[in-house]
């Protein structure tokens, strides 16, 4: 479904990604981990069209999508969240989910400019359904800026569910959360996001990765140093040294 072939990316004199190759099959649930600055988010930015690669190919469904741009890639069935929240703080919770659907192929320019009641009704129903999935339907009329962080993270998930993509990237979905909140987010991802979708999760929280993902890829200094099942990866000496501070974690 998704094949990264020898992806390289530099920012000035700094090589952030060095020949990253990863094959992801349909239905895979992959954790992408590594220390700060290892290139995780940069890799996702390349795949989703926010950065161009300096070398290599990104094949999605057999087509090289390097250079297509984030808008076209999003319309092809790929969706993502961001480490730093990208929501509309002065819009309501429901309006934020509605807005996430405006880039879908089912919305054309005429509908956006002049409206189509039937299309709008269908999209509104889908928005409310997505909010039900993440436990926010009772908050639909609140301004997004009034929500606490855990609910904002859930709102990002609702926006993805409303788009119903084939391929999902979650960039630190439990960032800034307490252990209990992170556990709840892990359950939400496992129950609502990953079934029927190919999913890649970037996280520093090993327990979440081990709970949600069936496979883990580890980056260190822009190099892929491991790609295996969670219990195998988190016992590898090079992973313990690079990412876990020489402390073996019980995954």
Report strand %: 15-25%
Number of H/I helices = 10
Structural class of the helix and strand makeup? alpha/beta
Question: What fraction, in percent, of the residue positions are helical?
Answer: 25-40%
CATH homologous superfamily designation of the largest domain: P-loop containing nucleotide triphosphate hydrolases
Give the count of structural domains: 2
Layout of helices and strands:
Layout: E1 2-11, E2 14-24, E3 29-33, H1 40-47, E4 55-60, E5 63-64, H2 70-75, E6 78-80, H3 93-100, H4 109-114, H5 117-134, H6 149-163, E7 167-171, H7 179-193, E8 198-202, H8 206-212, E9 215-220, E10 223-228, H9 230-233, H10 237-242
Parallel strand pairs: 3-8, 3-9, 6-7, 7-8
Antiparallel strand pairs: 1-2, 1-4, 4-5, 9-10
Helix pairs in contact: 3-6, 5-6, 6-7, 7-8
Key traits:
single chain, 251 residues, alpha/beta, Rossmann fold, 2 domains, 6-stranded mixed beta sheet, 4-stranded antiparallel beta sheet, 10 helices, 10 strands, 24% strand, globular, disordered C terminus
């Amino acid at each position: 479904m998704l094949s990264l072939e020898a992806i390289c990316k530099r920012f000035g004199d700094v090589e952030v990604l060095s020949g990253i190759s990863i094959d992801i099959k349909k239905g895979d649930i992959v954790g992408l981990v590594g220390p700060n600055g290892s290139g995780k988010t940069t890799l996702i930015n390349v795949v989703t069209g926010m950065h161009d690669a300096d070398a290599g190919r990104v094949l999605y469904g057999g087509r090289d999508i390097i250079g297509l741009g984030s808008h076209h890639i999003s319309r092809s069935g790929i969706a993502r969240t961001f480490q730093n929240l990208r929501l509309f703080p002065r819009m309501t919770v429901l309006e934020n989910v509605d807005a996430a659907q405006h880039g879908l192929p089912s919305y054309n320019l005429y509908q956006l400019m002049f409206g189509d009641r039937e299309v709008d009704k269908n999209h509104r129903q889908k928005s409310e359904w997505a909010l039900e999935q993440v436990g926010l339907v009772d908050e639909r009329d609140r301004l997004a800026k009034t929500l606490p962080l855990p609910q904002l993270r859930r709102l990002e998930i609702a926006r993805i569910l409303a788009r119903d993509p084939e391929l999902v990237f979650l960039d630190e979905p439990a960032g800034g959360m307490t252990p209990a909140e992170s556990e709840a987010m892990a359950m939400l991802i496992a129950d609502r996001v990953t079934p029927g979708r190919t999913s890649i999760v970037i996280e520093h929280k090993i327990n979440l990765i081990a709970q949600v993902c069936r496979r883990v890829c580890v980056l260190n200094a822009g190099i892929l140093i491991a790609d295996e099942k969670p219990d195998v990866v988190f016992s590898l000496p090079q992973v313990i040294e690079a990412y876990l501070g020489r402390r073996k974690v019980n995954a």
